[in-house]
C-alpha cells in the first residue's frame, strides 16, 4: 500500500518549478568516476595482501588455508572460541568444502551442538543462534579494501547466524575476492537490471561489532559478535 | 612591474608599518608602486554581517578605483578573498559583474604575488629568531594559498620556523563575530595563543590584519611576550 | 523531543556550556582524533577531490529528480510487499506510526539511531500511547536512561558525557555494579538490551540511503543494533527524510564510501545493511511486515531555494568535527538536535528564524566546514546567506547594528567621508588610549572587543598620510 504519494510528489515538483515526473528515467551523466580506477590494478595476490593487512585494523583474526586443511582450521578456530553451540547457514558450500562431516558427525559426536539453519524450524533458528557461541557462514562477495564479507541472506542463509552468536567465523573462497565495494555494488545492480530478486537482506560485514560511544574509547563487541575470524581458502 | 596597492583599511588605520613594509618589499623586488588614494574598505564587515545590498556601493567604488590597475596586490588573504567574491555578489548586474571579474582576475595576495607572479622564493630578508606561522582561514581555504608564505619564510636568513599546533583552527576573529560572540571568540583566540606559546617561538607570523589584531590584542591582555608580526614586516626585515 | 531541545536561549546555553570542562575536553579530543582519521582514510582512498565531486553530483542529481526517484522507490517497496507512507508533516508521520503500533498491539519497541525520528519527536508520541520505546544505539541508550538527555552530536550523541557519569546512570537505572571501564559498561548494555531485542514487537530504524532501483533501505552502523532491530521483531518501521535516496547501488556505494570515511574514518563501518522489503517465503528471520515512512517536514520548502544544497547532506558530521566554534561550545548550545555548521544552516530552515536566528552568526565563516564536507555543501556560504535573509528579508537584525552597517556602507563608498572619518576617529579615540600602543577599555562597539583583548590605537600617521608625505622625496 502506498499512501499520500500524489500530493507529496506534486509538492516536490512545484518546489522544483516543474511538472511532476514519475515515468521518465533521468539521465545520469556523471562527470566523475573515481571508483573505476580505485584498486582496480591489483592482482588477486595483491588483493589478498590488502585484505590481510586490513584485518588488523578491524580486530579480526585472519587465517589462510587450503581446501584440504579447511576442516582442521575451522575446527581449531571453534575450539579457540570455546566450542559450541554452533549456528550455521544451510549452504551447499559446506559440503563442497568437505565440512558436512564436521557439522553432522564429528561435532555432534563430540557433544558440540550444531544447528544448520532449517526453515521448517521457523523462529527456533533465531533462538538457537541467540544461544550459540559461534556463528559460521560463507562469504558471497569479499571486499579486499575494507576486509568485508558480503552476505546474501534469504531462505537457509538466515540473518541471525552472523549476528546473534557470541563469535563469528566467515569462510571466504579466494575467488570471491574483489577490490572494493564498487564491484559488489555493480554485481548487485546488474541483478536488479536483469530483474532478478535482490535478497531481502544484504550485509556488508567488516569485523566484529564495536562502538566508540563512551568517551570515544573503542569497545570491540557490542550488540553483534564480540570476536571474528576470517578463513580465506583456496577454491574447490 | 607596476603594482597597484590595495593596502586594506585595517593597515591604513592601525598598521602603518605593515603598509610601509609592503611598499618597501615590493619596491625592493623591482616593482613600481601605485596607491590610488580613492580606495576605501573592501566591504567585508557589512557584507559578512548580511548587509549585502548596503555593501554594493562600496564594492562598486572599489572596482572603479582599481579598474586602471595592471595587477592589484594586497597584504591580506581575507581582503583578497573579498575581491574574488565581487563577481558573484554583483551577479545580478551583468555589467558590474564583468568588471568585477576583471578585478578579481588581477588581484593577488602579497605572498602569492611574490612567489607565483614575480617567481621569487627568496626575498633576501634577514631576521634572527624562532617563528611560528598562523595561516588565515580565508587565505588558505577560500583563496587556496597554502604554500607561498611558508616558501618565503623558510628562506628568511636567521629565522627558524616551528610548526604551530592546531594551525588549521580559526583564531576566532571572524570580523563582527569577535564582538558579537565575544565569549566564544575568547576561547578560540586563547587556544590559538596557547598553541603559539607552546612552540616557544618568540615571533608569531600571520598574513591578515584581522587575525593579527585579534591574536596580538589577546596576547597583550595576557601579558605574553610573543611578538606578532605581519609577514610583510618579516619579509622586509634585513 | 523535536528539533528544538529546550527553551533556553543561545547566549545562556553558550555561557553554561563554556563552563563544562569535561565536555570541552571530550569534544576537542574527539575532533582531533576524527579529523586525523578522516584525512588518513581519505588519503588512502586517493583522488579524494574526485570522490567529493562525484558525491556532490550524485546528491545534486537526486535532489533535482527527487519526485522520480521517490516514485520508483515506493513502487519497488510495494512490489516487495512493503507499505509506504508519504508524510508531509511530523504529526502526519507520527500519526501513521502510532496507528501501525496500535494495530499490532505493540507494547515494546526497539529503535536504532535515527536523527529524523528525533526531529519529528516520535518517542514522546509512542510513549504517550503507552509503549515502551528503547533506544539501542549505545550512545542513545545512555542518553535515554539519563532522563532523555538530548544528543550533542549527530554521530556520537553522548560525546558530552564521561564514563563516570555513565556508570552512575547505569547503576541507578539498570542495576550495574561494575567499574566505569567502557568495555564493562558496553557489555552490560549488551546483556540488558539483548533481552529487549528478543521480546520487542516492533523495530524502528532510520535510513542512511534508500536505493530507488530495488526499493531498498540501508543502515550504516558499527554496533549491530540496527541489524538486531530488523532481524528479530515481527514488524519493521523505517523512517527516512525524503532526500535520503540514491538511484542505484552504484551511487549508493560511492556515498557510503564518503560517509564512513567522513564520519568515523573507517573504510566501511562494521555493518552496512541493505534491506529490501519484508522477509520472503522461506525466511525464518527478518520482519513479516515492513513500513517505510518518507518524511518531508519542511524539506520541500528548502527545495528550489538558494538553500537547496543543504539537502545534499549525508549526516556524516565531518563539518561538526572540524568546527572551531562547536569545539568550544559543544552540541547542546545550538539548542537543536542538529548542531555544528550543518545544524546552524539546517535548523533555522526547519525550525524557523524566531527560535534560531543566532545560529548563523555562531561562525567565523572560516570555511573549515565547507572544506570537510564530502558532498561539497558550501556551508559557510549558506551561513552567510542566512545572515543576508535575517537582515534584508526578515528584518531581525538589531537596529543599532543596522544603523552602524548603513553608516559603514555610506562611509566606505565615499572616499571623502572615509578619509575624514578615519582621521576623526583618531581624535575620538584619544581619551581611551591607556598608553600609546593599545586601548584596554573601549567605548560603544569596542566594549565587547576590549572585554577580551587590547585594541590597537589609531595611528597619528595613517598609511595614506605616510605614503603621501614620502611621495615627494623619501622614495628609495
Explain what this protein looks like in three dimensions.
The complex is a heterotrimer of chains A (236), B (238) and C (476). Chain A has 236 residues and is α/β, with parallel strands linked by helices. Chain A has one domain: NagB/RpiA/CoA transferase-like (Rossmann fold, 3-Layer(aba) Sandwich). Chain A has helices at residues 5-16, 44-57, 70-80, 93-96, 100-109, 124-131, 181-193, and strands at residues 2-3, 61-65, 86-88, 114-116, 134-138, 141-143, 148-153, 167-173, 177-178, 201-205, 210-211, 219-220, 227-233. In chain A, strands 2-13-8-5-3-4 form a six-stranded parallel β-sheet, with helices on both faces. Chain A has a four-stranded mixed β-sheet with strand order 9-6-7-10. Chain A starts with a strand and ends with a strand. The mean pLDDT of chain A is 96. Chain B contains 13 helices and eight strands. Chain B has 238 residues and is α/β, with parallel strands linked by helices. In chain C, the strands form three sheets. Chain C has a six-stranded parallel β-sheet with strand order 1-10-7-4-2-3, sandwiched between helices. A four-stranded mixed β-sheet of chain C has the order 8-5-6-9, sandwiched between helices. A two-stranded antiparallel sheet of chain C has the order 11-12. Chain C has helices at 10-18, 21-45, 48-64, 66-79, 90-103, 115-120, 122-128, 138-145, 163-173, 182-199, 225-231, 249-264, 318-322, 326-329, 340-351, 353-356, 368-372, 379-393, 399-413, 415-429, 446-450, 463-473, and strands at residues 83-87, 108-111, 132-135, 202-205, 209-211, 216-221, 235-241, 245-246, 271-275, 289-295, 438-439, 455-456. Chain C folds into two domains: 10-295, 3-Layer(aba) Sandwich (Rossmann fold), CATH 3.40.50.10420; 399-471, no CATH class. The mean pLDDT of chain C is 93. Chains in contact: A-C, B-C. At the A-C interface, strand 1, helix 1, helix 6, helix 7 and strand 10 of A face helix 2, helix 3, helix 4, strand 1 and helix 8 of C. Strand 10 of chain A pairs antiparallel with strand 9 of chain C.
Amino acid at each position: 500500500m502506498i499512501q499520500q504519494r500524489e500530493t507529496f510528489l506534486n509538492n516536490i515538483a512545484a518546489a522544483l518549478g516543474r511538472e511532476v515526473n514519475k515515468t521518465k528515467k533521468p539521465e545520469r551523466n556523471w562527470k566523475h568516476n573515481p571508483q573505476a580506477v580505485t584498486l582496480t590494478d591489483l592482482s588477486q595476490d595483491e588483493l589478498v595482501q590488502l585484505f590481510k593487512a586490513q584485518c588488523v585494523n578491524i580486530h579480526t583474526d585472519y587465517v589462510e588455508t587450503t581446501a584440504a586443511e579447511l576442516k582442521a582450521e575451522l575446527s581449531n578456530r571453534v575450539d579457540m572460541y570455546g566450542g559450541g553451540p554452533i549456528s550455521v547457514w544451510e549452504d551447499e558450500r559446506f559440503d563442497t568444502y568437505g565440512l558436512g562431516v564436521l557439522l553432522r558427525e564429528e561435532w555432534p559426536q563430540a557433544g558440540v551442538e550444531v544447528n544448520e539453519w532449517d526453515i521448517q524450524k521457523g523462529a527456533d533458528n533465531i533462538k538457537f543462534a541467540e544461544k550459540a557461541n559461534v556463528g559460521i557462514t560463507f562469504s558471497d562477495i569479499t571486499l579486499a579494501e575494507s576486509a568485508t564479507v558480503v552476505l546474501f541472506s534469504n531462505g537457509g542463509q538466515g540473518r541471525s547466524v552472523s549476528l546473534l552468536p557470541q563469535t563469528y567465523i566467515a569462510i571466504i573462497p579466494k575467488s570471491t575476492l574483489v577490490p572494493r565495494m564498487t564491484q559488489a555494488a555493480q554485481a548487485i545492480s546488474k541483478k536488479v537490471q536483469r530483474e532478478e530478486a535482490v535478497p531481502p537482506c544484504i550485509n556488508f560485514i567488516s569485523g566484529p561489532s564495536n562502538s566508540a560511544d563512551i568517551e570515544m574509547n573503542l569497545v570491540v563487541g557490542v550488540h553483534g559478535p564480540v570476536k571474528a575470524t576470517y578463513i580465506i581458502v583456496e577454491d574447490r | 612591474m607596476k603594482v597597484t596597492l590595495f593596502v586594506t583599511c585595517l593597515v591604513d588605520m592601525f598598521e602603518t608599518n605593515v603598509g610601509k613594509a609592503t611598499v618597501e618589499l615590493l619596491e625592493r623586488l623591482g616593482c613600481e608602486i601605485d596607491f590610488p588614494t580613492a580606495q576605501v574598505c573592501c566591504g567585508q564587515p557589512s557584507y559578512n554581517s548580511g548587509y549585502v545590498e548596503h555593501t554594493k556601493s562600496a564594492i562598486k567604488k572599489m572596482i572603479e578605483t582599481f579598474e586602471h590597475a595592471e595587477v592589484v596586490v594586497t597584504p591580506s588573504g581575507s581582503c583578497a578573498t573579498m575581491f574574488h567574491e565581487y563577481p558573484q555578489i554583483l551577479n545580478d548586474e551583468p555589467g558590474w559583474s564583468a568588471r568585477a571579474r576583471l578585478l578579481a582576475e588581477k588581484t593577488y595576495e602579497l605572498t602569492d604575488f611574490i612567489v607565483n607572479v614575480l617567481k621569487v622564493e627568496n626575498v633576501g630578508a634577514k631576521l634572527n629568531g624562532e617563528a611560528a606561522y598562523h595561516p588565515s582561514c580565508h587565505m588558505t581555504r577560500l583563496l587556496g594559498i597554502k604554500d607561498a608564505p611558508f616558501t618565503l619564510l623558510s628562506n628568511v636568513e636567521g629565522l627558524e620556523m616551528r610548526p604551530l599546533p592546531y594551525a588549521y583552527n580559526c583564531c576566532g576573529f571572524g570580523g563582527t563575530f569577535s564582538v558579537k560572540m565575544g565569549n566564544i571568540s575568547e576561547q578560540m583566540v586563547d587556544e590559538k595563543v596557547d598553541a603559539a606559546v607552546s612552540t616557544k617561538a618568540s615571533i608569531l607570523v600571520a598574513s591578515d590584519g584581522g587575525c593579527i589584531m585579534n591574536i596580538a590584542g589577546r596576547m597583550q591582555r595576557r601579558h605574553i611576550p610573543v611578538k606578532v608580526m605581519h609577514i610583510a614586516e618579516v619579509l622586509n626585515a634585513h | 523531543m523535536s528539533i528544538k531541545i529546550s527553551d533556553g536561549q543561545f547566549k545562556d546555553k553558550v555561557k553554561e556550556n563554556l563552563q563544562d570542562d569535561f565536555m570541552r575536553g571530550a569534544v576537542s579530543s574527539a575532533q582531533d582524533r576524527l579529523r586525523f582519521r578522516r584525512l588518513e582514510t581519505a588519503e588512502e582512498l586517493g583522488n579524494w577531490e574526485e570522490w567529493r565531486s562525484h558525491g556532490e553530483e550524485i546528491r545534486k542529481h537526486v535532489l533535482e529528480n527527487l519526485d522520480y526517484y521517490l516514485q520508483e522507490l515506493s513502487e519497488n517497496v510495494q512490489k516487495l510487499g512493503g507499505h509506504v507512507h508519504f508524510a508531509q508533516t511530523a504529526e502526519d508521520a507520527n500519526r501513521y506510526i502510532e496507528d501501525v503500533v496500535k494495530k499490532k498491539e505493540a507494547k515494546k519497541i526497539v529503535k536504532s539511531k535515527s536523527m529524523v525520528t528525533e526531529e519529528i519527536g516520535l518517542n514522546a508520541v509512542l510513549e504517550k500511547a503507552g509503549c515502551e520505546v528503547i533506544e539501542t544505539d549505545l550512545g542513545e541508550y545512555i542518553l535515554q536512561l539519563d532522563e532523555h538527555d538530548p544528543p550533542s552530536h549527530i554521530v556520537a550523541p553522548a560525546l558530552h558525557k564521561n564514563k563516570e557519569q555513565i556508570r552512575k546512570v547505569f547503576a541507578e537505572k539498570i542495576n550495574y555494579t561494575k567499574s566505569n571501564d567502557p568495555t564493562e559498561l558496553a557489555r552490560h548494555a549488551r546483556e540488558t538490551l539483548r533481552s529487549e531485542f528478543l521480546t520487542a514487537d516492533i523495530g524502528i530504524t532510520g535510513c542512511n540511503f534508500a536505493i530507488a532501483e530495488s526499493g531498498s533501505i540501508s543502515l550504516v552502523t558499527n554496533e549491530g543494533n540496527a541489524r538486531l532491530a530488523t532481524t528479530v521483531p515481527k514488524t519493521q518501521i523505517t523512517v527516512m527524510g525524503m532526500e535520503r535516496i540514491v538511484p542505484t547501488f552504484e551511487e549508493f556505494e560511492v556515498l557510503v564510501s564518503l560517509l564512513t570515511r567522513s564520519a568515523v574514518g573507517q573504510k566501511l563501518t562494521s555493518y552496512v545493511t541493505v534491506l529490501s522489503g519484508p522477509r520472503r517465503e522461506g525466511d525464518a528471520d527478518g520482519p513479516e511486515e515492513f513500513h517505510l515512512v518518507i518524511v518531508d517536514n519542511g524539506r520541500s520548502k528548502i527545495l528550489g531555494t538558494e538553500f537547496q544544497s543543504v539537502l545534499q547532506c549525508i549526516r556524516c558530521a565531518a563539518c561538526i568535527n572540524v568546527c572551531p566554534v562547536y569545539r568550544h561550545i559543544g552540541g547542546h548550545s545550538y539548542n537543536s538536535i542538529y548542531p555544528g555548521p550543518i545544524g546552524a544552516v539546517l535548523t533555522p530552515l526547519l525550525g524557523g528564524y524566531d527560535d534560531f536566528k543566532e545560529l548563523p552568526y555562531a561562525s567565523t565563516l572560516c570555511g573549515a566546514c565547507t572544506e570537510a564536507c564530502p558532498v561539497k555543501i558550501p556551508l559557510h556560504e549558506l551561513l552567510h546567506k542566512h545572515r543576508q535573509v535575517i537582515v534584508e528579508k526578515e528584518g531581525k537584525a538589531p537596529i543599532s547594528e543596522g544603523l552602524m552597517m548603513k553608516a559603514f556602507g555610506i562611509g566606505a563608498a565615499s572616499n571623502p567621508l572615509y578619509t575624514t572619518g578615519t582621521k576623526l576617529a583618531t581624535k575620538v579615540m584619544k581619551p581611551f588610549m591607556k598608553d600609546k600602543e593599545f586601548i584596554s577599555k573601549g567605548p560603544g562597539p569596542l566594549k565587547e572587543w576590549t572585554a577580551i583583548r587590547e585594541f590597537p590605537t589609531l595611528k597619528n600617521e595613517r598609511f595614506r598620510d605616510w605614503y603621501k608625505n614620502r611621495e615627494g622625496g623619501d622614495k628609495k
